[in-house]
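dumping this here before i forget
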Amino acid sequence: SKGYLNVEKMLLNTIYEIKTLLSEQWLNVSLGQNIEIKSRSNNSWYPHVSIYSEKFELLDVHRVDKKTDFIDMKLPNDAHYIKISDIYKLTNIKNGVLVKLYNSEK
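structure:
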């Protein structure tokens, strides 16, 4: 069977509430330059965020090997997708995350 990737295209300055993360979460970030990800309460998130081009070439990986509640990161110019996960296990972020895509002020 063929798989598919259902990827939501994020709009700028909109908070996306991902209530439960039972699998890695993919998002289309092609409209923005920066991303904020906030872990919801009762999580123990050890961030593993992968950034991909439009052709799914891996551009960057952001890993933090300590419990983290919030990350704010600049995306590479040709970033198109991100994959949100956890270094150790997805149950660490089972309560979900809040994600916001934005452009930095110049």
